[in-house]
Write a structure and sequence with these properties.
alpha+beta, Immunoglobulin-like, 4 domains, five-stranded mixed β-sheet, elongated
Length: 504
């Protein structure tokens, strides 16, 4: 109980932290999207300040971006004035030597005056002509007082516990509990009375989602249903139709927790489902929608996780290629279109076409052609390589070790269909003769289809690996550690078995 609503006193505590450690300011925010409208004149009277100039920074993407600066017009007085409005958001006033003076909100009204000092004691602060910052200051004073009391009472409780004085320890425990309840009621009332303020929405975003206690028929907890509820209601306390959320510090950590932790290792279909739900909520604000589409596209396009290419494909196909992303020019859209086209055939779950390619007996009158469908094992590994590629040579040796060890144990459940990407037939033949790998060896850039184009080898490069199941569906479309192949296939079979049980 001694950490009274810590998320709610974030702004207060951030002063104490940053005032000692300094503020890391990342470049000037000229590249940030901006909104049009009105001018601004903001006066800061900083008692005892001697800075020749101060900085105005905005919270963006878990960083502080330099937005503007102002020189002292007199001792401790700094005026930010201009014909254009700043973006609405959470801002900080930073000293010349990068110490934090103040966190405040810029909203619809950008003509106000703020009185403060260099100590960070909010009891000495005041603001004129800014209702939202007035309310924010009231909130900070309340949480500062609560934090001070909580710290004192927590110390007393610990002291009495160490003395064995249980009655006194319980007394201070009860005071902490009552203080916590008082603060929760204060925050709920604050949110209720000021629903449209950005600071209010920020405080609401810190509130945890309350998950119902779903039960199974036998009365035991239904954790799957609880998890599904949490995923679906995760954003209930965020106004995703308000683009100002981009400029508050709680937004990006929540994005990371939701998409890069909570959903990150789910199947692509599940991730896509929740991405669609999420993006639908952002469409009310084009500024928010743009930020989220760009963020998601980048995270999943650059991810190394198996199956995330299908998530990127889904995002691009349903957003960038649907004319929704007005900020992208035709050249960029064309690149998305090309990328989506190349990804589509090789996504996990797609049926790979039959490959019919000749082996090293390449005389015109006697060619032996091998079908990738004519495999007597449950799984087929399509192994694309270049005989002259050092990485290909190293990885092929590792693959052979796995192949031979499983063969000796009688547990080899896959065949390798090795496809050489080499137009130099003699070099390829020499490679096959020297290495004597036990699997099917085909290549020579001949075949029933342009397999290098189909499997996107021109873009992916060599070596490349795909694993197909007995229905010729792609179950892996990127290279993994060769030693992990048996474990991957075991895990795949376990997942398939669970899916079949759920269907039944």
């Amino acid at each position: 109980m001694n950490n009274i609503i810590l998320s709610s006193v974030l702004l207060l505590l951030s002063f104490q932290t940053l005032a000692s450690d300094g503020v890391a300011v990342v470049g000037k925010g000229n590249g940030l999207p901006t909104r049009d409208g009105g001018g601004h004149e903001i006066v800061f009277n900083v008692k005892n300040a001697t800075d020749p100039l101060v900085y105005l920074v905005i919270h963006y993407n878990e960083k502080l971006i330099l937005k503007d600066s102002a020189v002292a017009v007199s001792k401790g007085k700094y005026v930010f004035k201009g014909a254009n409005r700043y973006d609405d958001g959470l801002y900080s006033l930073v000293s010349h030597d990068k110490k934090l003076y103040l966190n405040f909100i810029l909203d619809r009204n950008q003509h106000f005056e703020y009185n403060l000092d260099t100590t960070g004691n909010v009891d000495n602060f005041s603001v004129k002509n800014s209702p939202e910052n007035t309310e924010m200051l009231r909130f900070q004073r309340k949480t500062a007082a609560a934090q001070k009391s909580a710290s004192q009472w927590s110390a007393k409780r610990k002291e009495f516990e160490e003395q064995g004085n249980t009655d006194s320890a319980e007394h201070y425990k009860a005071k902490l509990t009552a203080l916590n309840e008082e603060m929760m009621a204060f925050i709920d009332d604050f949110i209720l009375k000021n629903p449209d303020y950005l600071f209010t929405k920020m405080q609401k975003s810190y509130k945890e989602i309350q998950v119902p206690k779903f039960l199974k028929e036998d009365g035991s907890p239904d954790y799957q249903q609880q998890a599904a509820y949490y995923r679906l209601h995760y954003w209930d306390n965020f106004d995703l139709g308000d683009g100002r959320f981009i400029y508050i510090p709680s937004f990006d950590p929540k994005l990371n927790d939701y998409f890069l932790k909570l959903l990150y290792h789910q199947e692509s279909d599940t991730i896509n489902k929740y991405i669609d739900i999420f993006l639908k909520k952002t469409e009310a604000d084009t500024f928010m929608y743009r930020y989220c589409v760009d963020w998601l596209s980048y995270k999943f396009e650059t991810s190394k996780i198996i199956g995330h290419d299908a998530v990127f494909y889904h995002i691009a196909k349903n957003n960038q290629l649907q004319g929704k992303c007005y900020w992208l020019d035709e050249d960029v859209i064309a690149k998305y279109r090309k990328r989506v086209k190349r990804l589509e055939p090789v996504l996990i779950g797609k049926v790979a076409p039959e490959l019919i390619i000749p082996d090293t007996t390449m005389s015109e009158d006697m060619r032996r052609w091998h079908s990738s469908y004519n495999i007597d094992k449950p799984y087929t590994i399509l192994w694309f390589y270049d005989p002259d590629c050092p990485t290909c040579k190293k990885e092929a040796k590792k693959l052979c070790q796995v192949y031979d060890s499983l063969e000796m144990l009688g547990k080899r459940n896959f065949e390798v269909y090795g496809i050489a990407n080499d137009s130099d037939i003699e070099r390829w033949k020499r490679y096959v003769r020297e290495n004597k790998y036990p699997w099917i060896q085909v290549g020579g850039n001949k075949g029933n289809i342009d397999y290098l184009e189909y499997f996107n080898i021109y873009e992916m490069g060599n070596p490349a690996m795909f694993i197909l199941n007995k229905r010729h569906e792609i179950i892996l479309n990127k290279r993994i550690e060769m030693s992990n192949i048996p474990q991957f296939l075991e895990e795949y079979e376990r997942i398939e078995e669970n899916k079949n049980k759920e269907k039944q």
